[in-house]
Write a structure and sequence with these properties.
Helix content is 86%, strand content 0%. With 134 residues, it is mainly α. It has a domain of 91 residues.
Length: 134
Amino acid sequence: MTAQQVIIIVSFCGGIIGGMGMGGGTLLIPLLTLAAGLNQHLAQAVNLIAFIPMSVVALCIHKKNGYVMFGKSLHIVLLAALGAVGGSFLAKYSGGYVLRACYGAFLIALGVYQLGKTVYTAIKSKNKRVATQN
């Protein structure tokens, strides 16, 4: 299998996962670096480009369902844009090792957060069932 075929398959899988609600980049970046052999800078660039159409579709769907309040989200959009520009400059001037380490730390923190959230929800649900039984 050629590198181009691997990149196409990995990108397709990342798009499917992104469409299911989980951030496709969570899987796309590691797969592009590990399976396709791309360097970290290029993998992150591909992820950012792939994010554009997925986010536009998601925004349209959420707007149609009435979940978007543009007035209340303006400050979040402005801060996110500022963070994106700052992050782009940091990524440009940092080495691949630093990017991999930061991304790995992000994935670990995300995993710990998701695990904690799941455990908290399970305990809360169990306590609620016990309280209704008594």
